[in-house]
Design brief:
heterodimer, A: mainly alpha, two-stranded antiparallel ribbon, 2 strands, 70% helix, B: mainly alpha, 2 domains, 5 helices, 77% helix, 0% strand
Chain lengths: 253, 132
């Protein structure tokens, strides 16, 4: 019986033959790649099926799809204003991808894509690149003003590097927050599940005690549902906040 | 005055369509009030802001921890990179001073981030208190 709680995060190739050879590296089709495809397919299927028969009075699935649309649109409006809606497809895609991979990962036996720092870091990198490109397109070189707070000149020598570091920090904190939450939750579930098996196997009166970690699993499972949604929300709203800064610099401060 | 949203339907209510449906023609007052309500609802809809899900105290603690740690990591990483670059491309020996300076600056950036996060969370909580 596998008791290693970290085993669920192992990335393994599914097809034994490598798909591609790039620069001396073999690129395999892994369980991670498979579940990323599953997530994208699930999002696409959900949205197209829900909206295929668009009715004025929506069915349940249709209203779920409309709700997610409204939710993201409201989020962008409240953080960046109407002109931020240009980024709606971007933010919506990120939100749905993170939300679906968090929730699909909760299915027992499924692989959680967002529990890999490589995935969350890549997502965060895409967000930060978009922010930087947007900033330079909208403001030109004036985007550098983001790193110059209002302060006497001598202090700026110290403050500008601090601002630059704290800008780069977002890349790390954005990816680590999602990754750590997912990793911690799933590890905790697995650890409590192994308690159930271990207690059950001891026999005698202790076997009856194995019911207590079971309740714990139910509780943590419910908590993980909340975390799965909350982390997708946090990732999306931070994206909006950073985009807002790129669009409007410090106007709102 | 009937609000513009009602213009096409007014004819239906006042004219022949209304009698065909055996509906009593509504008073203009009612129509106007309904139109005002729809306009009001549409205005609110465009301004509506979604309430953020409440943050638990452990969530706040985790947020502060990640802000601080990631700033230190970024500072340390940049410092290490600077030292490496000087070592690799020039004859200057900066090691370990690049890393020392950047870790201290990273700590400063981390504290700044935590303060910004605290301000943000405070503002959110104050807004929620006002709404209550």
């Amino acid at each position: 019986m596998a008791m290693n709680p970290m085993e669920q995060f192992e990335v393994k190739p599914i097809l034994q033959q490598p798909l591609l050879h790039i620069g001396g590296h073999d690129i395999y089709f892994t369980n991670q790649a498979l579940f990323m495809c599953v997530v994208v397919a699930a999002v696409t299927l959900f949205l197209t099926l829900a909206m295929s028969r668009g009715r004025l009075v929506p069915s349940r699935t249709q209203s779920m799809a409309e709700l997610s649309y409204e939710f993201v649109a409201g989020m962008i409006r409240s953080t960046t204003g109407e002109d931020g809606l240009v980024f709606f497809p971007f933010v919506f895609a990120i939100f749905m991808f993170v939300l679906f991979s968090n929730f699909l990962g909760l299915i027992p036996g499924a692989f959680t894509v967002t529990s890999q720092i490589a995935v969350t870091f890549a997502l965060a990198a895409v967000v930060m690149l978009t922010v930087i490109v947007t900033g330079f397109v909208v403001h030109g070189l004036g985007f550098f003003k983001l790193f110059v707070p209002k302060a006497p000149f001598l202090l700026l020598i110290l403050l500008v590097p601090i601002e630059i570091i704290s800008f780069l920090t977002r890349l790390v904190s954005l990816s680590v927050r999602l990754f750590a939450n997912m990793l911690a939750g799933h590890t905790m579930l697995q650890v409590f599940a192994s308690f159930v098996i271990a207690l059950g196997a001891t026999g005698g009166i202790l076997s009856l005690l194995s019911i207590t970690p079971m309740f714990m699993i139910i509780f943590i499972g419910a908590l993980e549902m909340l975390v799965a949604f909350l982390q997708a929300y946090v990732f999306a709203i931070l994206t909006c906040i950073y985009l807002n800064e790129a669009l409007h610099l410090h106007e709102h401060h | 005055m009937v609000p513009p949203a009602f213009e096409p339907r007014r004819e239906m209510f006042n004219g022949k369509a209304g009698s065909r449906l055996h509906m009593p023609p509504p008073k203009p007052d009612d129509l106007q009030r309904l139109g005002e309500r729809i306009d009001e609802a549409e205005r609110q809809r465009s301004q509506r802001t979604k309430p953020a899900p409440a943050m638990s105290s452990s969530g706040i603690a985790f947020r502060f921890a990640t802000e601080m740690v990631s700033a230190l990591l970024v500072g340390g990483g940049l410092g290490w990179g600077i030292d490496w670059a000087f070592d690799h491309w020039s004859h200057l020996q900066t090691r370990p001073w690049g890393m020392v300076v950047m870790v201290v600056l990273g700590a400063a950036a981390g504290i700044r981030n935590v303060m910004a996060a605290a301000k943000e969370i405070n503002a959110e909580m104050a807004k929620k208190d006002v709404e209550k």
